[in-house]
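Memo to structure team: turn this sequence into structure tokens by end of day. - J.P.
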Amino acid sequence: MKLLEQKVAIVTGGGSGIGRSIARLYTQNGAKACVSDIDEEGGKTTVKQIEEAGGTAFFFKADAGIPEDNKKMVEATIEKYGALHIACNNAGITGPQALIGECPIEEWDHALRVNLSGVFYGMRYQIPEMLKAGGGVIVNMSSVLGKVAFEGSSAYVSSKHGLLGLTKTAALEYSGHGIRTVAVGPGFIQTPMISNNLSEDEIKMVRQLHPIGRLGEAEEVAELVLWLSSDKASFMSGAYIPVDGGYLAR
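Reply from structure team:
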């Protein structure tokens, strides 16, 4: 039997990178998935890849930072598949690259809205449906920068730190009701978020911060998320698990 047989999952930010890899791996392991992203073309490409591999998924265009979009996304998933058992709240943005004393306030607000409030909005509507289904799993995508700081990235760092507090609080509130909540902390992963926002010199610099000697791959993060989303991780709740090539060991 596949790890996620007869499960229904939502993956936000599923149009590329880590989210795409998670959605593909979920469905390869038996889940039916709602793939959500603000990028319609990317999200539909993910669904096409899933279907070509024999999996089941549909695309729902949503901005993670808008409460109503999250509500409608969950409703569409229930209408399509009848239940919700797993949610990977993966959607996120890099935010402004600026010193705190020079950070544009609008860009700060946008990063916090998507990266932190967006996860809260998702959980706000995911949790009631998981309770109806008898339990579930929520995996929130933090970062190594949810544990340590990085100059020039105050909004991103703050949002990912806050995400850990949200995850732990949810674990206290809902573990006894059958809903496990965990956070994953990727190091720097070779995705469009990296290639579109960092120069070659910057990528070389962050590569050197990983003792393993390279950036991570999206599939490596997805393998951890799959395991955490399955019954094999049934005693894990409230945890933060890095997948970082040794980044946090320094």
